[in-house]
C-alpha cells in the first residue's frame, strides 16, 4: 500500500471515530399497550423486540442526563449510544414497560404532567408508582402541568402575559416533581412536540433543555432548545426502519435559518449550512411529509435552501433530511425540521 493510500485509509478511520464519538439517539414512546390508540402505542411484544435488538446489537443504553451532559460538555460517548424516554407517564408504563426495562437493566426517563397526577387521573401513574420507579433508576422529568400547547396564546393575551403564564407552568411543574420525587433535571419535553422561537428563548433563559418529537440524531452541535427524538410507536415501531434510525448520526450544522417552526409562511423554507466532510452534496435529500421530495437550492458549496414544492396542510408537518455517511457505510445523517402551519 502506498503512503498516499495509507493516509486516506487512516484519515477515513479517524474521521469515522471522531464523528461517531459525540452523537447519540433518543427514543420516544408513549403507550405500551394493545388496547389503546395504535398511533401512539406499541405492544409489550414489540417493545420487548426493540429492547432485545438493542441488547443483541450491543447498543450502549444510558440515562438521559448522562447523554445530555456528555453532549453539552463535549465528552465522547460510546458508539451506538441510546437513551429511552416516555411521554405522559401512563399507567401502562408502570404495568407493562417498566418490568421489561428492568429485565434488560435499561435506564429510562418518564416525562410527566404533575397537575394531572395531583388530580388523580386514572390513566396516569400515581406519585407513589413514580417514586417506586425512580428508586429503581428511572428519571422523572417535566412535561408541563397539564399538557397544553405551550406556544399558544389565549384570546387577547399579550406576549408578556403569555411569557409569565408559560414560565409559571414550567416552573411549577418542575417544583412538584422535585417535591414528590426529588428529581430536578431541567429537561422539558414539549407537549405534542410543538415549539416556536419565543418558547425556545424562554426555555433557554430558564436553563432548561427543550426536547421535541421530531426525528433525528443528537450531537454536540445540536440546539439544546430543540433536541430531536425518534418516535418508536405505531407506524414507527417497525424494527426494520427503526434499526436504520438507531444507527443514524447528527449533521454538523453551522447555521440553521428559518422564520419560525410555528408559522403562517406556506410553503415554508429553511436554509442549512453544514460541515460537509463526511457526506456528498449529491446524496443529500429532503422529503416533505405527505408531499414528497423537497426542492433543494444550493446557495454555496456548503449551504442549501430547502423548500416544499407545494403548500403544507394546516397543523403539523416535517422536512426530513438525510445523507449517507462516507466514513461509516450504511449509516445516515438525519435531521428533521418540524412545522406547525397556522391560518
From TrEMBL:
Keywords: Signal. PROSITE patterns: NODB. The keyword Signal applies. It is found in: Secreted. Residues 80-343 form the NodB homology domain. Its main location: secreted. It comes from the Bacteria. Residues 1-23 form the signal peptide. This is Polysaccharide deacetylase family protein. It comes from Pseudoalteromonas lipolytica.
